[in-house]
């Protein structure tokens, strides 16, 4: 082959022979990048992301006491000097400064950044790493902060995902692996500042914590999750055999609706191996109108099972409890008498499908598990900055554009990539529910006694809608149809306001001064209500979000004119947010729909201008005095739902380690036991058992406080008022796959159900006269703490020995706990948070073996837990010598 042919061939591959390096690279620069070269660069370029430190120092800059230092490392296997390219990547925290002459990092929008070579770029030398250090705002404390799918662009060429940044899936655990993120190995990578006392959890710490929960079998057979109000266990009675199935006998007063309500529970029993069958164990179901709506009685015995309830909900709950009572290994139930009623009427789970989409099948599976544990509210978050997930008749742009992210900088065909979604639209994190999908979800949920609460966030967190309606505007303007173009417009194009939302957008807020905004909202609500009507389920509650509005509108001509005209009693820009929420609340009220919103936005309203029936979701952090705002809104008489991030955000890590997935802004260790320990009726009392984000004690003052003018600043809950329920939250910024939905939700959701359904006897009673709670205040007595520990031991054993196996049967890929373990004098001792789970170990890179207590091992040794069906393993952890 001639020298020129060789150079051309190597150029096509994006490579150069050493002797022809200069000529080939000059050719690339002269001709511009080709698609073949860009494709090759995407395959060969190795990207590594490293968090260097989170402890602030001089690198933060003058006067700044919080920042992190990180670096992007680039390596190419061959010499390569072309510079006509850029890398787009998601960076969860703002880049403040870049310490590189060869590269710049530019903020595009939200978490999207562009890394580009400068004129001083010297090219890649074969195998030599180029590092681009930078300083970012706040912290990056988890390896899951490193977003995947960096991609290359060059002019009009098709974008190319850099292969080294694609996610992998671990074969044993089924979990995401980010091969480009360098592992955390040093304390300064995990501490927020020098005063941060939170210990990076290791196998020894977990072992010590788990030692408080012993293996116990006696409580397992009669165990029901969530725990019933009362249960009597017949001592010494032989278990009831249900292997032949069950045969239902309804009394004559039962209605067809009662029987239909039981169908989903019967299906669950069938899935667990106990179908309805002629000749099966008789189950008699009798109506008792003296019972409350959701209450029931359940009696099991050798001659059959007896159930009493007032109607369909009670019958359903009784049969679900029967399924929980069931031991799937031998198809038996204990002989018990149960009387049961729920603690709260509202027992909810919030799922964010906007940031990353999760399809109908995943939601159906989730509804099955909500039903299995008596949760009854699915708060479905379908509209936010990063995506709009529901088809709306007459507004196709919402899903044609707003349901997908891709590399279209003009955003005429899709939204900009965010959260590591990459440049292509055809990926799993994009998508939406069709109208028929949504109707099916509503009906499926209703059959399981679950109400679906639709949520499209507004006026902030609305970028997907804003950009979709801007694209609609441009389309109609190009057709000369200005009236149609402006019909649903959400943007004042003359608005010069500069702001940054909590997710770093400067264009994510509806303009509340334009009537077209309210025309749009009215249209959306009417279309969603129509889908509920089609499903035969009237829309009763609509969640508007109303949170985190980021200082928009102040330089909007539309808002300046609106305030000047004063038609709506708005006299300043500060009143625009409350005005919007109040107006939307009354629009909903006129349609017979109750408004719901997050507590920060709802708290900005003028209470006298809100409908009497309003629901608020309380998400103030407890460690920062969040009980005060919660109590204030309870005292307004609103329907108050606990959503406390410290304990009820399930996108937070299970354990205090950067190896665990999730955000961590309110809590870095939120495992199942912590949720079980929650005392929801007495929020401030949790200060006696918990610490803050940095593992420091905090104080919760729940006494009456007034300002200098005698106005009440904060006060205890008034007698006769309280919370209507509690709700777990899964935000999906770091949750891309269905496997990650399962991992983050389960088994924590079972403990959400436990606390929402059952009030434990060890909880500190609320003091309406007020009190101050801290680590030494003493309201949470030693006797209460001991009772809590015994109760947790009971529940943990039920999960480990009976309930997790049911999640296996349902195909739920829940988080298997990392075991605790120590090595003493060459012998291994291991345990798990759920006693009864099998543990495996290996020394070095040897074969995995079944753990037996005191097994002789040689360091290094790793341990992992095993699912009851033996199909999955936990993340392995290494064990130290003691």
Automatic annotation (TrEMBL):
Keywords from the UniProt entry: Glycosidase, Hydrolase, Signal
Recorded superkingdom: Bacteria
Ribosomal protein found in the keyword field: no
SUPFAM superfamilies to which the protein is assigned, alphabetical: (Trans)glycosidases, beta-N-acetylhexosaminidase-like domain, Carbohydrate-binding domain, E set domains
Catalytic activity: Hydrolysis of terminal non-reducing N-acetyl-D-hexosamine residues in N-acetyl-beta-D-hexosaminides
Top-rank EC class of the record's enzyme: hydrolase
Alphabetical list of Pfam families matching this protein: CHB_HEX, CHB_HEX_C, Glyco_hydro_20, Glyco_hydro_20b
Name of the protein in its database record: beta-N-acetylhexosaminidase
């Amino acid at each position: 082959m001639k020298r020129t042919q060789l150079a051309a061939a190597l150029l096509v591959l994006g490579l150069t022979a050493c002797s022809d390096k200069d000529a080939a690279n000059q050719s690339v620069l002269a001709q511009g990048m080709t698609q073949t070269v860009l494709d090759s660069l995407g395959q060969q370029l190795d990207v590594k992301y490293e968090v260097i430190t989170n402890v602030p120092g001089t690198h933060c800059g003058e006067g700044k006491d919080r920042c992190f230092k990180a670096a992007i490392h680039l390596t190419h296997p061959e010499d390569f000097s072309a510079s006509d390219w850029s890398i787009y990547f998601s960076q969860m925290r703002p880049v403040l400064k870049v310490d590189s002459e060869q590269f710049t990092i530019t903020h595009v929008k939200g978490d999207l950044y562009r890394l580009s070579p400068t004129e001083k770029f010297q090219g890649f030398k074969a195998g030599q790493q180029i590092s681009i250090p930078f300083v970012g705002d706040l912290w990056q404390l988890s390896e899951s902060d490193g977003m995947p799918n960096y991609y290359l662009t060059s002019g009009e060429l098709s974008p190319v995902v850099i292969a080294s940044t694609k996610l992998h899936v671990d074969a044993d655990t089924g979990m995401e692996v980010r091969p480009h993120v360098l592992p955390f190995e040093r304390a300064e990578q995990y501490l927020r500042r020098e005063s941060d006392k939170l210990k990076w959890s290791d196998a020894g710490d977990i072992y010590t914590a788990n030692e408080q929960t012993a293996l116990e079998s006696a409580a397992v057979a009669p165990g029901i999750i969530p725990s019933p109000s009362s249960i009597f266990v017949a001592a010494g009675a032989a278990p009831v055999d249900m292997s032949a199935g069950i045969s239902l006998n309804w009394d004559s007063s039962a209605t067809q609706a009662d029987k239909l309500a039981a169908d989903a529970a019967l299906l669950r029993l069938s899935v667990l191996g106990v179908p309805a069958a002629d000749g099966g164990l008789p189950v008699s179901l009798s109506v008792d109108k003296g019972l409350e709506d959701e209450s029931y009685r359940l009696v099991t015995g050798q001659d059959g099972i007896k159930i009493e309830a007032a109607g369909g909900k009670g019958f359903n709950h009784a049969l679900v409890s029967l399924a929980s009572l069931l031991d799937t290994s031998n198809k038996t139930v204990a002989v018990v008498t149960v009387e049961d009623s729920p603690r709260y009427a509202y027992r909810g789970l919030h799922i964010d499908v906007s940031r990353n989409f999760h399809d109908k099948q995943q939601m159906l599976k989730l509804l099955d598990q909500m039903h299995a544990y008596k949760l009854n509210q699915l708060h479905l978050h379908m509209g936010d900055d990063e995506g709009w997930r529901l088809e709306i008749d007459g507004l196709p742009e919402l899903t044609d554009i707003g349901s997908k992210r891709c590399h279209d900088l003009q955003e005429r065909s899709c939204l900009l990539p965010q959260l590591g979604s990459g440049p292509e639209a055809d990926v799993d994190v994009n998508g939406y529910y069709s109208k028929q999908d949504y109707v099916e979800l509503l009906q499926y949920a209703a059959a399981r006694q679950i109400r679906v609460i639709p949520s499209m966030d507004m006026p902030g967190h609305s970028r997907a809608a804003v950009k979709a309606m801007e694209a609609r505007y441009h389309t109609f303007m190009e057709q000369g149809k200005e009236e149609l173009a402006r019909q649903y417009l959400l943007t004042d194009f003359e608005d010069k306001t500069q702001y940054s939302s909590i997710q770093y957008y400067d264009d994510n807020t509806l303009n509340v001064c334009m009537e077209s905004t309210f025309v749009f909202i009215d249209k959306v609500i009417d279309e969603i209500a129509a889908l509920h009507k089609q499903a035969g389920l009237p829309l009763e509650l609509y969640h508007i979000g109303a949170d985190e509005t980021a200082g928009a509108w102040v330089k909007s001509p539309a808002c300046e004119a609106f305030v000047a005209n004063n038609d709506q009693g708005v006299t300043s820009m500060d009143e625009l947010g409350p005005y919007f929420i109040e107006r939307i609340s009354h629009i909903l009220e006129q349609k017979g729909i109750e408004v719901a919103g997050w507590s920060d936005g709802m708290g900005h309203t003028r209470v006298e201008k809100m409908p009497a029936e309003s629901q608020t979701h309380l998400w103030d952090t407890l460690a920062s005095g969040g009980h005060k705002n919660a109590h204030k809104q309870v005292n307004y008489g609103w329907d108050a739902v606990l959503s406390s991030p410290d304990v009820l955000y399930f996108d937070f890590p299970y354990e205090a380690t950067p190896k665990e997935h999730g955000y961590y802004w309110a809590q870095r260790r939120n495992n199942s036991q912590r949720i079980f320990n929650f005392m929801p009726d007495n929020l401030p009392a949790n200060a006696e058992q918990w610490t803050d984000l940095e593992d420091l004690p905090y104080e919760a003052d729940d006494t009456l406080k007034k300002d200098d003018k005698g106005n009440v600043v904060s006060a205890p809950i008034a007698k006769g008022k309280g919370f209507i329920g509690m709700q777990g939250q899964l935000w999906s910024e770091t949750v891309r796959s269905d496997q990650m939905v399962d991992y983050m939700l389960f088994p924590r959701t079972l403990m959400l159900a436990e606390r929402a359904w059952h009030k434990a006897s060890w909880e500190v009673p609320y003091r309406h006269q007020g009190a101050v709670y801290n680590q030494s205040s003493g309201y949470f007595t030693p006797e209460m703490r001991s009772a809590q520990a015994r109760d947790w031991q009971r529940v943990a054993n039920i999960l480990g020995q009976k309930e997790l196996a049911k999640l296996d049967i349902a195909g739920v890929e829940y988080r298997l706990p990392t075991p605790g373990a120590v090595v003493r004098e060459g012998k291994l001792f291991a345990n798990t948070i759920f006693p009864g789970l099998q543990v495996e170990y290996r020394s070095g890179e040897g074969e995995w073996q079944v753990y037996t207590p005191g097994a002789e091992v040689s360091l290094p040794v790793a341990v992992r837990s095993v699912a009851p069906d033996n199909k999955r393993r936990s993340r392995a952890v290494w064990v130290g010598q003691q």
